[in-house]
Design brief:
Layout (H helix, E strand, L loop, with lengths): L2 E8 L2 H14 L5 E7 L5 H7 L3 E5 L5 H9 L6 E4 L4 E3 L4 H11 L5 E7 L24 H7 L8 E2 L6 E4 H7 L12 H11 L5 E11 L13 H9 L3 H8 L19 H9 L1
Length: 275
C-alpha cells in the first residue's frame, strides 16, 4: 500500500534532504513524495528536480494550508500522508500504519505517527526528552536507532499532528485544510473537527510508528494567524476543549470514540475569547 506523502517546505533544504532521505530508506514500500517549495531561495526546487521529486514552486511563502491543498491536487494515491520537513521518519514507520488501514477496511480513520522530540513540552502524545539533535547537521542518527527498541509508547487517542494520514475520499469530503487558518496555526485540530463532523471516530496515534521531530521553529520567521480565535468562532467551542473532551488526546487508545455532543462549556468559551 503506497501513500502520497505531502511535504511543505520553506527555505529548509537541510531538513528537507534529511526528511526525504529517511522516507526513502526507512519505508517498507516506495511511497509517492510530493513537495511544495515556498520561495526556494536555498535551492530546494533545484534539489527536488535533481532528485526526480515532483514539486510545486511558489515565489512567496503561501503557508502550510495552501501548500497541502495544492499538493493534494497532484497526489495519485488513495492514502494521503502529511509530513513536516523537520521530521526524520524512523525505520518501518509505515508498517504499523499500513496494517491498521488493512485491518479497519474502511475510509473513516485518522492516524498519526508518534513523534520523538528533543525537549519535553508536556505533550502526552510524544516521546520526550530524547535529545538526538535539533538540526540534521548535529543529528545523532545511530544513537536514535539504538535507542528505539527501548522506547515504549502505547497507542494514544486524539490524532491531529503530522505525520498523519487519511483516505483521499475523506480529504475530499472535508475539502482539505482550511485556508481561513493560513498560514497554519490551529489548522490541525480544525481538520480533526471536520473529520469528526463527517463521521470519523477513529483518531489513533500509533506508538510503533515513530518520527523524530527536530522541532524547527519555522513559525518564528513570520507573523502567524490567531488560529485559536478562528477555531472558536467557526465551531463555537475552543480547540482545547475539543481535543481534550472529544478526542481524548493523549489518553490510552481504547477504540473508536463514543458520541459526544459538540456543545461548549460557557466558561471555556469565555476563556477562549479573552485569552
Amino acid at each position: 500500500m503506497e501513500f502520497s506523502i505531502l511535504i511543505p517546505t520553506w527555505n529548509n533544504l537541510e531538513f528537507l534532504k534529511c526528511c526525504v532521505n529517511s522516507i526513502r530508506k526507512n519505508s517498507i514500500v516506495q511511497h509517492e513524495i510530493l513537495v511544495y517549495v515556498n520561495e526556494g531561495a536555498d535551492g530546494s526546487g533545484d534539489w527536488c528536480e535533481k532528485e526526480n521529486i515532483k514539486f510545486i514552486h511558489s515565489k512567496k511563502n503561501v503557508g502550510v494550508c495552501t501548500s497541502l491543498n495544492a499538493l493534494f491536487e497532484i497526489a495519485t494515491k488513495d492514502i494521503i500522508c502529511y509530513v513536516n520537513d523537520d521530521m526524520y521518519l524512523c525505520p518501518n514507520w509505515d508498517e504499523p500504519l499500513i496494517k491498521e488501514i488493512e485491518t479497519i477496511g474502511d475510509e473513516k480513520f485518522y492516524f498519526s505517527s508518534t513523534m520523538i522530540e528533543p525537549e519535553d513540552t508536556g505533550n502526552k502524545c510524544v516521546l520526550a526528552p530524547f535529545p538526538f539533535g535539533k538540526t540534521p547537521s548535529e543529528f545523532k542518527e545511530s544513537e536514535l536507532l539504538a535507542a528505539l527498541p527501548k522506547m515504549n509508547k502505547a497507542d494514544w487517542s486524539g490524532s491531529t499532528w503530522p505525520p498523519n494520514l487519511m483516505h483521499r475520499n475523506m480529504w475530499k469530503a472535508i475539502d482539505g485544510y482550511g485556508e481561513e487558518f493560513s498560514p497554519g496555526l490551529y489548522s490541525d485540530p480544525d481538520v480533526s473537527m471536520k473529520l469528526w463532523q463527517h463521521g470519523v471516530r477513529i483518531f489513533k496515534g500509533l506508538g510503533e510508528s515513530r518520527a523524530y521531530h527536530f522541532m524547527s521553529k519555522s513559525t518564528g520567521r513570520f507573523k502567524m494567524n490567531d488560529g485559536k480565535k478562528t477555531f472558536l468562532k467557526k465551531w463555537g467551542v475552543s480547540s482545547s476543549w475539543f481535543v481534550k473532551e472529544v478526542l481524548k488526546q493523549g489518553q490510552f487508545y481504547t477504540g473508536p470514540l463514543s458520541e459526544n455532543k459538540i456543545s461548549p462549556n460557557l466558561k471555556d468559551r469565555l476563556k477562549g475569547l479573552i485569552s
